[in-house]
Target: 1,4-dihydroxy-6-naphtoate synthase
Amino acid sequence: MKKTLIAHSPDADDIFMYYAIKFGWVDMKDTHFDNIAKDIQTLNEDALNGVYDIVAISFALYPHIKEEYAPLRTAVSFGEGYGPKVIKRKGQKLKRNFKVALSGEHTTNAMLFRIAYPDARITYMNFLEIEDAVKEGKVDAGVLIHESILTFADELEVEREMWDIWQELAGKELPLPLGGMAIRRSLPLNRAIDYENTLTKAVQVARDHKERLSQMLLERDLVRIDGATLEKYLELYANDDSITLSPVQYEAINKLFEIGYEHGFYDRPVNVHDYLIPTQYTELRES
Model:
C-alpha cells in the first residue's frame, strides 16, 4: 500500500476534519494515510519548500505556490462575521507604531494586518505564544487565531476584529478565507482526484457524526479545549461550509488574491479557478 502523509495544523478544526480517516471511517484503495501536525506558519514554509504532497496552508500563501500545488476544494476554514482578533491589554491605548505579534509571515491574518497597520512593528511567533506575550508586555498587541479567539484571558480585550478589516478591504460582505489544503501538482491526476474525493468524504463523515467524533477527540486528549468550547469552535471553522467550496467562497478567495496583488504581496493576478484539480478528467475517462 502507498503511504500518504497529510500535514495539518494542531488546531481542533483541522484535527476534526482529518480524523475520520485516522479512525478508519473513511479510506482509499491501496493507500495508508498518516498525519503530522505543525503550526500553520511552519506548514506554509513547508509548502514553499515542497515538503509534503498534501498540506494545510493559509489561503494568502497560495499564489506563492500555485505552480507546484493545486488548491483542494475541501477541508476549508472561513470566517463568517468572525475571525482572528487583534488583542491588547485592557485599557491600553496603542500608538501608531505599536509592537505586535503575528502567527506567521504568510498567514492570511498577517497580510490583512500589514495592509491595515502599515506602521506597526511586527514580530512573528508561534500562535500558542502570542497571548502570553501580550499579557507579559513583550508586545503591545497580538493577533489571536484558532481556539484562542474563544479562550483568551479576561485581562485582555479586542482592539479590532480581523473580520472588520477584511470587510473594509473587500468592499462587500464576503466570508473571510483563512485556511485550506493544497496538493502537489506532480501527482498523477487520477490519484489527485481520488485524494480530493477521499478528503471531501472525510469532512462530510466528520460532520455527519460530529457528536461521536468530538467525544472521541476529547477522550483521547487530541484537542486543547473542553467540550463546550469545541462545540462552538467547530461551528465556526469546521462546519457544513467546510465540506466543499461554494461559489461565494470562490469569490472570496479571488477577492483576497486581488487585494494581495493590489498591495504588492503577489507579482501578478491569480484566479483560483485556474489552478483547481480538473475533476472532469474522471468523467471524460469514463464516458
